[in-house]
## 1
Amino acid sequence: MKNNANNKKVLLIDILDEEIKDILGNLKKIFSKEESSSNSIHITVRGPYYDITKKFIQEFENKSGSHININGVGLFENDNQYVVYYKVEFPDEIDIKSIWKKPDYPKKNGVHPHISIYKGSDKNFADKVYNFLKIQGKSFTAKDYKLSMRTLHQSDKPDSFDNNINNEELSYPILKDAIKLVEQYEYV
């Protein structure tokens, strides 16, 4: 079988805490004009590669700590795409450097695990999203997470993915404020 980009695999840490998934997932929906290629809340830690053995999943499960801290925001540019993200910190029991291997982001540049919230080519909007999230100062502690392997470009959207936000989800003030930011930006 010939290797192609569709056969490449990535190793992800999926955040499973419902409230965190709701808030961060909806922030991704709000800040993305189109349906995101990924609506899961995850940290890519390894890949893309043609072959990732399951030993990394077993090693991770044996070392899993009690929680992952999601705290602070950042912004970087990669190939004319601006990425606004939440920074992720792991407990000492998880040696993320031993798992981390991303050819697009070599270790020599440092290991910077993160959860992307906005990806796009609009630098001004990326700056606004970054400043908004920084001012909000929201942090999270994820106690429910799991390492999983996916094929690159494999959809991780549930079959019933809906890009709309319902009123119940708007009970989080950060989401209401995010919608206002997008509406103001659209009319400037």
## 2
Amino acid sequence: MSKKYIKKLDVICMMGGDDVVIPLRIRIEDDDGVRQAYSIKDCRDISHRGTCTRPDGVFVTNEMLVFACKIDVFGALRPITLYYDTGKSRWTMSV
């Protein structure tokens, strides 16, 4: 199954006192252009030092945080991967 890479994404997150980023909700446009919001039910920081290409084809650098998350989509948990580029303050996602 191929992954879908989404560039336009809004993320509501919590910033901890020790510079920990915790994503809470995402908002993306569906195929009809309507913005849909989803709650993040589970999230793990899977970032590491160094550069690599992730299995979904996203090239990750030292300036990126990577999160393996599950979102609630109409009562079913769906896995997603969130990427936060700390240098550009930009979120992206693959599903």
